[in-house]
Amino acid sequence: MELAYIPSPSRGVLYLGPIPLRGYAFCIIIGVFVAVWLGNRRWIARGGQAGTVADIAVWAVPFGLVGGRLYHVITDYELYFSEGRDWVDAFKVWEGGLGIWGAIALGALGAWIGARRRGIPMPAYADAVAPGIAFAQAIGRWGNWFNQELYGRQTHLPWALHITSSDGGRVPGYYHPTFLYESLWCVGVGLLVLWADRRFKLGHGRAFALYVAAYCVGRGWIEYMRVDDAHHILGLRLNDWTAMVVLLLAVAYIVVSSRKRPGREAVVEPAPATGTPGEQEHPEPRDGEDAGPDAPTGRTGKTGGASGAEGAPEDEAESAEAGKS
User: How far apart are CA 240 and CA 293, in angstroms?
Assistant: First the structure.
C-alpha cells in the first residue's frame, strides 16, 4: 500500500457544453502569457517600448507550435505513419507531443521575422524573453501530467506519479514524475538567467544562450530517466544527443560573443519618429533662452517664440528703408 504519491487526473479534458477545455492547451496558453508578460517588463527595463514583445510573439508563438509539432512527428513518425496508425493523428496537437527543440528553432525564426520588421536586433530580444521561456516551459510541462505521459522508471518514492491509464501501451503503476523534475529544473533555469543577467549585464544573446545551455544540462539527465519509446543512438536516446550538441553550441556562442561583443547593447529599439520633416526633435536652446515644454521646434520662424521676437526689428528696418526710397 502506497502512503504517498502524486495522483494523475482522471481525465485531461472538461466539456463546457460542446466545447472541450483541455488541460494540456491551458498549460501552454498560460505559459505563453507568462513569457510575454515577463519579457515585456525586461524589454522596457532595457529601454524598449511597451508592446514590442507581444507584437513579435505574434510571429514567434505560431512558428514555435508548428516547429514543436514537426520535431515530434518527425522523430516519432512510427506513431503516425506505421501500419495500423492513422496519419491524421499527427495534427492532433491537443493529445500531446511538442518537441522543445523544434519549438525553439522555428520559434526563433518567427521572432527573427517579427524583429526584422520592427528594426530590432534579434539577440537583444532573445535576451529579454529568455527567462520567460524557461518559466513557460515549467508551466507547460504540467500539460504532460494532464495527459499522463512523459514519466520515468518505476519507483516507490513518496513523490511517485501514479499512472492509472492503460491507453497507448501504458502500464498502470508508480513512476518517477519526470514532468515534475523538468518543471522544477526550468524554474531554476529561469531564476539563474535572471540572476546572471543582473549580475553580469549579459547582452548580445548571451542570456538566451545561458538559458539554452542550462536547460540542456537538466534535459540530459531527465531524458535518461524516461521509459517511453524513443530512437536510440549508441545506447542513448535521440534527445540526449540533441541536448549535448545544443549545449556545446550554446557554450561556444557565450565564449565567442563575450570576446567579440563584450557588454550589453546601449540601444535595443529605435525611438519612434516624431514631428514633421525639417523640424528638430530636440533643438539646441540659444544663449539666454530656456528650452521649456512650449519652446518652438524650428530654428527660425515668425509666429511666436524667440525666433519671431528677433525677426520683428529686422522687418521694421526693411520697411523703413522701403519708405525712404
Answer: 61
What would the DSSP string read from start to end of 146-215?
Answer: HTT-S-BSB--STT-EEE---GGG---EEE--HHHHHHHHHHHHHHHHHHHHHHH---TTHHHHHHHHHH
- CA distances to 113, 126, 325 from 57, rounded to whole Å, are 10, 11, 72
Q: What sign does the CA torsion over 32, 33, 38, 40 have? A: positive
Q: Is the CB of residue 125 less than 8 Å from the CB of residue 203? A: no
Confidence at residue 125, expressed as pLDDT on a 0 to 100 scale: 97
Q: Looking at per-residue confidence, does 283 or 130 come out higher?
A: 130
In 3D, which of 122, 115, 123, 73 has the Cα closest to residue 93? Answer: 73
- Helix (H) / strand (E) element for 237: namely strand 236-237
Mean pLDDT of the chain: 83
Cα(84)–Cα(297) distance, rounded to whole angstroms? 74
Burial 148-181 (b: 16+ CB within 10 A, else e): bbbbbeebeeeebbbbebeeeeeeeebbbbbbbb
Whole-angstrom Cα distance, residue 259 to residue 249? Answer: 16
- The C-alpha atoms of residue 79 and residue 141 are separated, in whole angstroms, by 21
Question: Considering only CA atoms, which of 226, 219, 222, 210 is closest in space to residue 244?
Answer: 219
Question: Residue 124 and residue 265: Cα distance in Å, rounded?
Answer: 7
The position carrying cell 492509472 is: 164
> What residues have CB less than 8 Å from 31, skipping those under 6 apart?
135, 136, 137, 138, 139, 140
Of the candidates 135, 138, 101, the one whose C-alpha atom is nearest the C-alpha of residue 240 is: 101
- The CA distances from residue 324 to 256, 313, 315, 318, 321, in Å, are 78, 17, 15, 10, 5
- pLDDT per residue over 265-317, tens digit each? 988 998 776 654 444 444 444 444 444 444 444 444 444 444 444 444 444 44
